[in-house]
Amino acid sequence: MKNYANEEILYGGCPGCAYAKHEFELPCGMAYENDNFTLSQDWELPIEGFLIVSPKRHIEKLSELTDNERNEMFDIVNKTIKILRENNVCDRFEIIFEEKENRHLHVWIMPRHKWMTELVDDIIDNIGTILEYAKSNFRSENVYKQINNITKIVKENY
Ligand SMILES: [Zn+2]
Q: To the nearest whole percent, how much of the chain has pLDDT over 90?
C-alpha cells in the first residue's frame, strides 16, 4: 500500500490494527488519539482534510461498538467537522461508513471540495472517479504541505 505522498507503507496483518499500535506513521502524523480511537488523514488519498476515525480494537461492524464507544466515535466525527469548518477547510462533508468483510471498521470524513462538485454531478455515485482523480492529480508538495497544516490545525484545536 502507498501513502498519500506515494511512499510505501509496510505493516503486518490488519492495517487498521497496525496503525492503532503505531507500527507505521504518516508524514503528517496523527491528528488525535485516545484510548479507543485514532483520528488521522486518510493514509492513501492526497485529499486535503480527508480524515478517518478508526477504533483501536478490531471491529468490522458498527453494531460491535459499545454504546460508549459509539457515542465517543460520533463525538470525534462531530468535533473534527466543527474544527475543519471553523478553520475554513470546507463547509460541507460526506460521512461514510463501510462495513466490509474482513476489514477494520472506519468512518470517512470527506470534505465536499469545489473540485469534486465540478468533476462529477453526484459525489457518492462517482466516489471511485473522485478518489482516482485525487491520486492522479494531487500528489504534489503543495498538497502534502496543506495536509500537514490541516492535521496541525486539528491537533491544536482538538
Ligand atoms: Zn484491525
A: 98
